[in-house]
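Example A, followed by Example B.
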Amino acid sequence: MPVLRAGLLAAAVAAGPAARAQFTVPTDVGKPDGASVFLNQCGTCHSLDPNEQRQGPTLKGVYGRRAGSVAGFSYSAGFAKADFTWDETRLNAWLTNPPSVIPGAVMPYRQPDAEIRETIIAYLKEQH
């Protein structure tokens, strides 16, 4: 992609000022929507279908749900000791570093970007 942009920029410079206006590259592509972020970041291991379990439990209704309470899902041992309900604070900590929230939890995903975590959490709240 950088080679393509460099080529477009070179063509625009060579063509003069009138042509340069036609070769602008957008710098603000906007904030990604929650559904896309969920699909790309969470969708491999989790579903929003309440009847579908993958490597992780369904996340339909996770916001406000007691941790480790999806019937029929085989949670890791750490979840047996989890005595809380998923809210913004817990989900944010969980997405940052799962074992810090539930020691012994099995989830390799970590999201260091606060904006992406916020987008995922907002989307999960909508799916309640």
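Example B, a separate protein, is given below in the same form.
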Amino acid sequence: MYDDFIAQKFVTRKLCMMLVAVFSGAALFLSAIALYGILAYAVGQRTRELGIRIALGAQSGNILRLITEQGLKIVGVGLVTGIGGALVGTHLIQGALYGVAPIDPISFGVSVVILGIAAVLACLLPALRAARINPIKALRE
């Protein structure tokens, strides 16, 4: 009887952790798609400006850096806000955490690194598109 209770409790915790992992992955994917969409829209709106910059001699690396910095500023604000919310939120879900302290620097660090990698990849696609703008075609539009 006691063994069944322990087994069921273990299965319940394992299921909870799997659900958290699946939803966390989905949230990461959706946030990367949203960041890509925002930057792609911004590049579309700034096509003429970027075309003029290129026509005046801006290198593709400068354009790449300009767009990537714009995206990483958004990500920086999101990370600071998210870390603050996570510090508060971990105390609320402390009962669901298994084998991890509510404020675990390794978990927070790994999360920031994974989010940062996803953000850089989401920023690079629109930035590469912006760096390949044809200035003559951009100025005609």
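On Example B: The radius of gyration is 22 Å.
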